[in-house]
Design brief:
- This protein has three helices and two strands, in the order αααββ.
- By secondary structure, the protein is α+β, with helices and mostly antiparallel strands.
- The protein has one domain.
- A two-stranded antiparallel ribbon has the order 1-2.
- Strand 1 and strand 2 form a beta hairpin.
- The longest helix is centred in the first third of the chain and has 9 residues.
- The two termini are about 15 Å apart.
Amino acid sequence: MRSMIEVAPLQIYYSGLLFTPESSPIRVGYLRNIPWVTMEPKVTDVWSSLTQPLEGHTDNVKSVVFSSSGKLVVSAF
């Protein structure tokens, strides 16, 4: 069985864009190119020093949780 990242890599990448800070050059440059996004979540302007964005895993991701505020996503393996 193929992993979701193998099946739909662009959809995974685009979903991560929704949670990047407002001032992120990646968000500014690419989020407007996702036609199906009609409402963006409220996010901070910059990441705090306590947040570790885009940290990779050394194994398959087995769990993903979104915060009730919709501002954070956490994954575990």
